Amino acid sequence: MGDGALGRIAALVRQDGRLLVRDPSPLIVRTVMPLLLMSFMQPLFRAALRADDVRGATGAEQGVPGMAVMFLFFLVNIVGFAMFREHGWHTWDRLRAGPARPFELVAGRLVVPLVVAVVQLAVVFAAGGLLFGLRVTGSYAALVLVGVPLALCVVMVGMALVALCRTIAQLSVFANLLALLFAGLGGALTPRSALPDWARPLAPGVPSYWAMRGFSAVILDGGGVGAVLLPAGVLCAFAAGLTAVTLFFFRAEHRKLSWS
Asked: Rounded to an integer, what distance in angstroms lies between the CA atom of residue 138 and that of residue 182?
C-alpha cells in the first residue's frame, strides 16, 4: 500500500474522528447502559453462577463480560451509519470521484469504530471492577487477546451489513436482531451451562460464544494467554470471513438510502 493510499485512508479516519468528537453521546450511552443494566441484574447473575457451583460468585463474573459483549454488538449500528450518512449527505459520489479506491473507502471507515469498540470494552471492564467487584483471576493480556479480535468482529459485522443492506432501516433492524441473537446464543445473558437444550449446539456458530468462553476462562478459571488461543483464533476467523463477505458484496456504485 503506497503513501498515497495511506494518506487517503488517514483523511477518512480524521473525518470520522472529528465527527465523533462533535457528538460522542451515542457512544457514551452505549458505554453507560451495560453498567446500568448490570446494577439491576447482578443478583440474577450471582444466583445463576452459584447454582453452577461457582463459589463466592458476586455475579460480576458473568454480568460484566456479558453486558460488555452484548452492548458491544450494538455498535454495529454506528459502523453502518458512518457509511450511510455519506449517502444521506450526498457526499458519497464526491468520494467515489476522488482517487480513493473502494478498498480504501472501506478501510478508512474501520479505524475509528475499532478504537471505540476496544475503548468501550476497556471502560466497561474497568468500571465493572470498581463498581461491581469484578475480580480477574487470570491474565490481563489474555483479556486483551480476546477483546481485540472481538472488537474487530463487531466492526466487520457492521461492514458486512453495509455491503448487503440497501437502506439504513434494513441495517438497523438486522444489527439489533443480531445483537440480541448473539447475546442470547453466546451466553452473554446467562451462563452457557444454563442455555436451553436447543440453543447449545447453535452457540458455537456465533462470535459472542467464543468471546464469553475466552473471558470466562480468564475471569473464572484464572487462565492465561494459552487458555484463550482457541477462542481468539476463532474470533479472528469470524473477522476474516466477514471481511471476505464485505469485499465480495461491497460495490462503491451501489446507491444506499438513509431512509426506507
From this structure: 25
The whole-angstrom distance between residue 183's C-alpha and the CA centroid of its chain comes to 11
Question: Rg of the chain's alpha carbons, rounded to an integer?
Answer: 19
**Number of domains comprising the chain:** 1
DSSP 96-144: HHSS--HHHHHHTTTHHHHHHHHHHHHHHHHHHHHHH-----S-HHHHH
The residue segments making up the domain with residue 188 are 3-249
Dig out the grid coordinates for 31 from the structure. Answer: 458505554
The per-residue pLDDT for range 212-241, each reduced to its tens digit, is: 999 999 999 999 999 999 999 999 999 999
User: How many Cβ atoms sit within 10 Å of the Cβ of residue 2?
Assistant: 7
Whether residue 221 is contained in a domain is answered as yes
Contact indicator for 5, 104 with CB cutoff of 8 Å: yes
Amino acid 250 reads F
Environment class of residue 43 by beta-carbon count within 10 Å: exposed (0-12), middle (13-18) or buried (19+)? Answer: exposed
In three-state secondary structure terms, 253 is coil
As a whole-number percent, the residues of the chain with pLDDT over 90 amount to 50
Q: Report yes or no: 156 and 237 within 8 Å, Cβ to Cβ.
A: no
Intra-chain end-to-end CA distance of the chain, in Å: 37
CB 47 within 8 A of CB 77: no
Residue 222 lies in a domain: yes
Query: pLDDT digits over 159-198, tens only?
Result: 999 888 888 888 889 999 999 999 999 999 888 888 889 9
